[in-house]
Design brief:
The structure holds two protein chains of two kinds.
Chain A lengths: L1 E5 L10 E6 L5 E5 L5 E3 L6 E8 L6 E7 L5 E5 L10 E4 L2 E4 L7 E5 H5 L17 E5 L8 E5 L19 E4 L2 E2 L13 H4 L23 E7 L2 H4 L10 E6 L5 E16 L8 H15 L16 H4 L9 H6 L3 E14 L2 E13 L7 E14 L5 E17 L4 H4 L18 E2 L2 E2 L5 H6 L1 E20 L2 E20 L12 E23 L3 E24 L15 E24 L3 E12 L8 E11 L5 H6 L3 E15 L10 E4 L12 E3 L10 E14 L4 E13 L1 E6 L8 E6 L2 E17 L3 E18 L20 E4 L1 E5 L6 E4 L5 E2 L14 E5 L2 E13 L2 E15 L1 H8 L39 H7 L5 E17 L2 H6 L4 E9 L3 E3 L18 E11 L1
Parallel strand pairs in A: 1-7, 13-16
Antiparallel strand pairs in A: 1-4, 2-3, 2-5, 5-6, 8-9, 10-15, 11-12, 13-14, 15-16, 17-18, 17-50, 18-19, 19-20, 20-21, 21-24, 22-23, 24-25, 25-26, 26-27, 27-28, 28-29, 29-30, 30-31, 31-34, 32-33, 34-35, 35-38, 36-37, 38-39, 39-45, 40-44, 41-42, 42-43, 45-46, 46-47, 47-48, 47-49, 48-50
Chain B lengths: L6 H18 L1 H4 L9 E3 H4 L3 H11 L14 H9 L3 E3 L7 H4 L8 H24 L7 H26 L10 H4 L7 H18 L14 H14 L3 H14 L19 E5 L9 H6 L10 E3 L1 H4 L7 H6 E6 L2 E6 L14 E5 H14 L3 H14 L12 H15 L6 H8 L3 H4 L14 H6 L11
Antiparallel strand pairs in B: 2-4, 3-7, 5-6
Classes of the chains: A mainly beta, B mainly alpha.
């Protein structure tokens, strides 16, 4: 019996498993297809056989074959698996199919990623996985993207009162990323300069993930519960993100080329006042303050108003358009060559991406990537080798600061730059006293990142079912930075030419020997994994500032600096662990799984280094029960699963367990002796923070699994939090590092639906949907009231609680914002501090996401394919008034959004939204503005539905392509952030409370992909 | 029967053994260097005297936090404002509150006045606890450094108790008890100061341990002791201690007033080097304007200006003048080095001039009026003035002459005028707007939140 296995395009499928068996007999003939996709069974007895052909990612084919002894040639066509249930997903140290999975795992595929014209792969995850919150910090090319799985657990606020933001562990091709998801830039640049108050007080910066080309990613898996993450022990508490890059597939050597050109513009621009509107607002403000504007710069009464008395009253510059209103042209080029035999495959791909800044000046982020993967299996199939290497080089040059305050410059501000290109610092003899926006274009900041990620996997099968192997991983990120402040960018009255240089490197070496054992019993399948880990992570950051250069042309070198200030910071952490997983599936119905890890970390002191984490889980595929099958035949799949276990959170820094001294490097030595000083309080006794996680899930499949539904409930509790615990100054230090005996709970629901709605010859319509709810709560905190956290957290409330004043409204008589004091009385001047400490501040809101999710539809009609993906989110966030009153105020010498017109109080009896105007900081109405920013008047519901991705493609007809010797070709249009429906007023709902920051971009990409 | 140890089982067992053995060896794999290159362990820091002295040098770091407390000009400025020696040319802000006696518990200057000394105290306490009975250090080294640290600790507490009243008395490094300590009584703080100083005088020799007067010697301990006794109204003790310094013959008044605050000043009992490569003293950078026509940040008040008699060289040497419009505006100019100078300006902690005036005040209180006037006249002579015209027979007149001389000689130095007015009960008369409770600054609000055992000073809320 001969045959050939092909896909729907007629391409041979190499390595497919073909088995033939006789009904009623357990024995089967099994073989895999060769490199032509062919199989043959010789000397078969004449019989009626059941032929089963399986290939990962394709639907299983089962058919009856009558073999009458004569040569029989079969052509077997396999269709891509339409059921997500049988797709293989990457998990911790292995893969599994969703069918038998009992852990909470979400996957995002290459298909979903490649349709999004984004440069940072993390951005492509937004809305696609339940329980995964993605926050784009701003629209600066290359900027950081925050990732959080199932809510915030740690409490340790820093000395500025900034609450922490938990992020998952990132693993790329089995290697824990050296940088993890942290900002890699040290010097000021446009990304760092952006303020972000979007619910999370985190610093921005540049992302290490920008060095990974989304085109090189095969899948991204998010591990969320104890079953999936316990095996990562001390590092798994905040979830794990596994990024797997593309591998070669056996077959003809294929060359693929993908080229697109993108156009960017502000996703949701804000309309600011024009000159006439602005000047009228200013005049009204002066009238409200009872002041007459004057042109005397030495008048500090607040009456000095150059915009009204000196500047041209008819000049109009739309600063927002000047600074953010450009459209940039981006380029993305990606080429790959792949192929191989069943025993040996390869892929090599290269990419170039240029993202322009939507900001004046010649700034861009340019990325060069080289990806390769080799796979080899020995002829006896016992030994396998996998080598995956990614190299990324990213150059980001930008302005050193700027944007925000430039956007709100008065629209009649005189020219800030002359026709000769020199900056202008005064007008008609009066100093302009504004941050000269054009200076930022000369204060350039250049960053180069080199990112290297490589993993080698070796495996040898000792016996049937038993293999030993090891994976060796190496991850390194090197970043060099250089920023300058030349004389041409400085106010000539005080010039200090200076430059900064910085280097930052992070490296991880990860070695994990493993044993895999699997055995099939009568009806059961047992798989066991046992492994050990050795991991060493080192970081090294240095920075030198140089001042007092004699000439701008020396700024490229530190040698020209009269004075230098060096700084460095070096870190090391080692981990060792033993981990294991045991899974037993009985009769395709019952599943039990145990996993665990004994983990040691050098970040802990003697006797506290080791921790043990584990999980136990079980699943029941009840749809396989005969009674169920008979009763509810339209159910094609049903699974009930649950697991419970522990994970941990590591100490954030090395050596904290010992009392240490550092040297002072900035000050001159004392009598020739370099000074040392103590850097921490001695507390050797801190240990792991431990998270206990419960996960219950119910899965259904209907209509032959064309509709798959999942509902998941989880409850996570983290205790023994590791924090910098604040102390009274008399202790000698503001904080001590240690465990805090408090418990934070995150619980929630996650729902997903995957459906193939219509599937006919020409038309296919599929839908993906997910929705998640997370509820965060501080459950216990012994002695909270007496602790330093008394002003930041409340038991029974979310950890993102906002404590502030209760806003009433604008007093119609006085025109001032009014608030309720702690007793419920109305006041325009509430007292600072919580009610417990005598103030008027109470819980006024929180920054939890109430619900979030996404849904995507793919329509394929003949050669056309349309994918539309919408993402939505809802929560309470700072509104645009918070932004208006935080830095400036209407009536002051800054521009305002048009939205405020008609909303402010002008005369007694007005029931206005905004209080009366103020012309300067000397205005008597200024105090209640600061109080307003700290009240719930500055918070609003922020619910939006954003058409995140719309992708239309057309595959050129095969007949035509054959003539030109092209295997496949398609043209496409991909759009990101196409449009948004929201109740959020003024600005982008994804950047709440910061409408002047570098805005998120709407991207439209036109592209062509070719396959030879 | 199946073989219990089939080949397969043997291999399996071997594999598991491999994993177990890895685990056993793992503790070694977890070893990291004992410290990072940028930080060493406390034990290593104090493993020999060459290294330990670097921690001592850290205690003496000028104008840095952590480092030598009160060397950031913050104490100088706030107390000079409160004593109305100077006024701020900014009419609002945290500093203006000191001049108008409206200091709030959230005042940021108060926060640093409280916090920085405790960070410096931790350094001192840590050095003391690390060297005590340390077998790696010689007995003579331990003795010397213990004395120096005790003088330093006494100096910090002396200023804290005068700024805030009784403060938490921290003499160890155990944060678990220190962080929640309540305020000690004023007398308990003084008892600690006296205990430290009397121990220090036993330990410190008359010679300085290193070049110049950069580190305390015996007479530094005695100088602070004299000042403490003066404040405690132990007149005889104050007299005896001050007298012993003057009689030691080690110090003499610097004849040239412009050299008093320079490195190598013969008047110095303790001065800290300010050898910065890019700026001078914190005092100079706060007080001295960039140009002779610029309005200084702080202007010397008329009430202080009027105290300088005609011909007083201190007026021309220790006050600077800016011509703004047609007006002469004076600013503190004892420290002149806005930029680094040569010879360097050093930050003065104790100088002989103050000791003369301590002996003078103690003598006057002990009714040794001629002795008192003799000391006052020594100081006046150096300033180019003739003998005091005070009635040599009236104790109150002599005390007034001493007070006036203290006011002109010790202006803008270590809060002398502010503390003098408070300890002599003359503040209410001398300072318009002053009320009794203003003698002490408020405890920072945040500290009360962090340590609920702290009780705010009366009059503040």
């Amino acid at each position: 019996m001969y045959g050939r296995v092909v896909d729907t395009l007629g391409q041979p499928l190499i390595g497919a498993t073909v088995s033939i068996s006789i009904k009623g007999y357990a024995y089967a003939y099994v073989m895999t297809t060769d490199n032509k996709g062919e199989f043959h069974f010789n000397n078969l007895p004449q019989e009626r056989y059941t032929l089963v052909v399986t290939y990962v990612g394709y639907n299983k084919l089962e058919k009856t074959v009558n073999f009458n002894g004569k040569d029989l040639l079969l052509v077997v066509v396999l269709h891509n698996s339409s059921s997500a249930l049988d797709q293989i997903q990457v998990i911790a140290y292995g893969t599994e199919s969703k069918r038998f999975s009992i852990g909470s795992v979400s996957g995002v595929t290459a298909e979903q990623i490649e349709k999004q014209p984004v440069t940072n792969p993390l951005l492509a995850l937004e809305g696609l996985a339940p329980g995964l919150a993605i926050t784009a910090m701003n629209g600066v090319p290359g900027s950081t993207v925050l990732v959080q799985v199932r809510g915030q657990s740690s409490l340790g606020a820093n000395s500025l009162g900034q609450k922490p933001y938990d992020q998952p562990l990132f693993i790329i091709d089995g290697v824990p990323s050296a940088t993890q998801n942290t900002n890699i830039s040290q010097l000021s640049n446009l990304a760092l300069a952006q303020e972000f108050s979007g619910g999370i007080s985190q610093s921005t910066g540049l992302s290490p993930f920008n060095d990974i080309n989304p085109n090189d990613i095969e899948s991204i898996t998010i591990l969320k519960d104890a079953d999936a993450t316990s095996i990562y022990g001390s590092q798994g508490a905040n979830g794990v993100v596994l990024i797997t890059t593309k591998r070669g597939k056996p077959g003809k050597t294929t060359f693929e080329l993908n080229l697109n050109s993108q156009f960017n513009e502000v996703a949701k621009p804000v309309q600011l006042l024009n000159t006439q509107q602005y000047l009228q607002l200013r005049k009204d403000a002066f009238a409200a303050d009872g002041l007459t504007p004057d042109n005397n710069p030495n008048d500090y009464s607040g009456a000095f108003a150059p915009d009204l008395t000196i500047y041209d009253q008819n000049k109009y510059t739309n600063w927002q358009k000047v600074i953010q209103g450009n459209s940039t042209n981006n380029t993305d080029l990606h080429a790959s060559v792949s192929g191989g035999t069943p025993n040996s495959t390869f892929i090599v791909s290269g990419g170039y991406t240029r993202s322009g800044y939507n900001y004046p000046g010649d700034f861009a982020d340019q990325r060069y990537t080289l990806h390769s993967a080799l796979h080899n299996t020995s002829t006896d199939k016992r030994f396998t080798l996998d080598l995956v290497t990614d190299y990324g080089y990213d150059q980001n040059n930008s302005a050193g600061f700027g944007g925000s305050q430039g956007v709100v410059l008065p629209p009649n501000t005189p020219d800030l730059i002359g026709p000769d290109g020199n900056l202008i610092w005064d007008y008609k003899g009066v100093p302009l006293n504004v941050q000269n926006f054009y200076a930022s274009l000369l204060q350039t900041s250049d960053l180069s990142t080199f990112n290297f990620n490589s993993s080698l996997n070796l495996s040898y099968q000792i016996l049937k079912g038993l293999s030993i192997g090891t994976s060796v991983g190496y991850s390194r990120n090197n970043t060099t930075e250089h920023s300058i402040d030349p004389s041409t960018a400085q106010d000539p009255s005080y010039v200090n030419i200076n430059a900064s240089f910085a280097n930052n490197s992070a490296q991880t070496i990860n070695i994990e020997p493993q044993i895999n054992y699997s055995k099939t019993f009568d009806k059961g399948v047992l798989t066991v994994l046992l492994g050990t880990t050795y991991k060493k992570n080192t970081t090294d950051a240095s920075q030198t500032e140089g001042y007092g250069y004699a000439n701008d042309n020396f700024l490229g070198s530190i040698d020209g600096a009269a004075t230098t200030y060096p700084y460095d910071n070096i870190g090391i952490t080692k981990y060792i662990a033993t981990f294991g997983r045991l899974k037993y599936v009985y009769d395709q119905k019952y599943i039990v799984e145990f996993s665990g890890r004994k983990d040691g970390s050098s970040n802990f002191g003697p006797g506290r280094q080791f921790g043990t984490f584990g999980s136990v889980g079980a699943g029941w595929i009840f749809s396989e029960e005969r009674a169920f099958k008979d009763a509810l035949p339209f159910f094609s799949y049903g699974k009930l699963s649950g697991n419970y276990g522990t994970t941990g959170s590591d100490a954030s820094k090395a050596y904290s367990y010992q009392a240490e001294y550092e040297t002072l490097s900035y000050v001159p030595a004392f009598q020739g002796i370099r000074q040392s000083y103590p850097v921490n309080l001695y507390n050797p006794d801190f240990g792991w923070a431990t998270k206990k996680e419960l996960n219950l899930a119910l899965d259904f499949g209907f209509f032959n699994n064309r509709l798959l539904l999942n509902a998941t409930y989880y409850r996570d509790r983290e205790g023994d939090e590791l924090v910098d615990y604040p102390l009274a100054a008399q202790a000698g230090f503001a904080t001590v590092y240690g465990n805090l005996n408090a418990t934070v709970q995150n619980k929630g629901w996650e729902f997903t639906a995957i459906s193939t709605n219509i599937k006919s010859k020409d038309f296919i319509w599929t839908t993906n949907f997910n929705l998640s709810f997370n509820r965060n709560k501080l459950i216990s905190f012994p002695n909270l009231a007496a602790s330093p956290y008394a002003e930041q957290y409340i038991i029974g409330q979310p950890t993102s609680i906002i404590i502030g004043y209760r806003y009433k409204d604008v007093n119609p008589t006085t025109g001032l914002f009014e608030f309720y004091d702690k007793n419920g009385n109305v006041t325009s001047n509430p007292n600072y501090g919580t009610a417990a400490s005598g103030g008027d501040e109470v819980a006024i809101g929180n920054r939890e996401i109430n619900y979030m999710g996404g849904f995507g539809n793919t329509f394929t009609y003949k050669h056309f394919s349309l994918y539309v993906f919408c993402q939505f989110s809802s929560g309470e966030q700072p509104n645009y008034l918070s932004a208006i009153y935080s830095n400036n105020f209407p009536g002051g010498m800054t521009n305002e959004p048009e939205a405020i017109l008609g909303k402010y109080w002008t005369a007694p009896g007005d029931h206005a939204t905004l209080q009366r105007l103020a012309a300067s900081y000397n205005s008597s109405s200024i105090n209640s503005l600061g109080d307003f920013v700290q009240s719930n008047g500055a918070l609003s519901n922020d619910t939006y539905l954003r058409v995140k991705t719309a992708a239309l493609s057309y595959a050129l007809p095969g007949d035509f392509l054959k003539k030109v010797h092209v295997q496949g070709a398609s043209i496409y249009v991909n759009a990101q952030n196409l449009f948004t429906i929201t109740n959020y007023k003024v600005g982008d709902p994804e950047q709440p409370g910061s409408f002047t920051s570098f805005p998120l971009q709407r991207i439209v990409a036109f592209g062509l992909s070719l396959k030879f | 029967m199946k073989k219990l140890f089939s080949n397969k089982n043997k291999i399996l067992a071997g594999c598991f053994l491999l994993v177990i053995s890895t685990l056993v060896s793992c503790k070694k794999l977890l070893q990291i260097p004992p410290n990072s290159p940028t930080a060493i362990t406390r034990a290593e820091q104090f493993s020999d005297s060459a290294s330990a002295i670097s921690a001592v040098a850290g205690v003496y770091t000028y104008n840095y936090n952590p480092g030598f407390a009160f060397s950031d000009a913050n104490l100088t400025i706030t107390t000079a404002l409160s004593a109305q020696e100077i006024s701020s040319t900014e009419s609002y802000g945290d500093e203006a509150e000191f001049y108008s006696y409206t200091v709030l518990p959230i005042n940021t200057e108060v926060v640093t006045l409280w916090q920085y000394p405790y960070q410096s105290l931790y350094q001192v306490n840590d050095v003391l606890s690390a060297i005590t009975n340390n077998p790696n250090l010689s007995a003579s080294f331990i003795k010397q450094i213990t004395g120096e640290m005790e003088v330093t600790r006494a100096l910090y507490y002396f200023n804290l108790v005068n700024l805030f009243g009784g403060v938490p008395l921290v003499t160890s490094i155990d944060y678990s008890t220190n962080a929640q300590l309540p305020r000690a009584s004023v007398s308990a703080v003084y008892a600690q100061i006296l205990a430290d100083l009397s121990d220090a005088r036993k330990k410190l020799p008359a010679s300085y341990p290193s070049a110049g007067t950069d580190r305390p010697n015996l007479y530094t301990a005695i100088a602070l002791l004299a000042k403490v006794h003066l404040y405690q109204k132990n007149w005889q003790a104050a007299y005896t201690e001050a007298d012993s310094i003057i009689r030691s013959g080690i110090y003499s008044l610097e004849p040239n007033l412009s050299n008093v605050f320079l490195d190598g000043s013969v008047e110095s009992i303790w001065q800290l080097p300010v050898a910065s490569t890019y700026q001078g003293t914190a005092e100079a950078s706060n007080f001295v304007p960039y140009s002779s026509t610029q309005i200084p940040n702080y202007v010397v008040t008329d009430s202080l200006l009027n105290q300088f008699e005609t011909g007083d060289q201190r007026l021309t040497n220790w006050l600077g003048v800016s011509v703004v419009g047609n007006q002469n505006v004076y600013y503190p100019y004892k420290y002149k080095d806005k930029q680094p100078t040569s010879p360097a300006t050093d930050f003065m902690v104790f100088r002989l001039g103050e000791i003369y005036l301590i002996r003078a005040e103690a003598a006057a209180e002990l009714n040794n009026l001629s002795g008192a006037l003799a000391d006052v006249n020594t100081i006046r002579a150096r300033a180019g003035l003739g003998a005091s015209t005070a009635n040599a027979a009236s104790q109150s007149a002599v005390l007034a002459a001493v007070a006036k001389e203290r006011r002109t000689e010790l202006c803008f130095e270590w809060g002398n005028r502010w503390f003098d007015l408070n300890r002599t009960g003359k503040a209410a008369n001398a300072l318009p707007g002053y009320q009794g409770y203003n003698a002490l600054y408020p405890v920072p609000q945040a500290q009360i939140q962090l340590n609920t055992h702290l009780i705010q000073n009366p009059g503040y809320h």
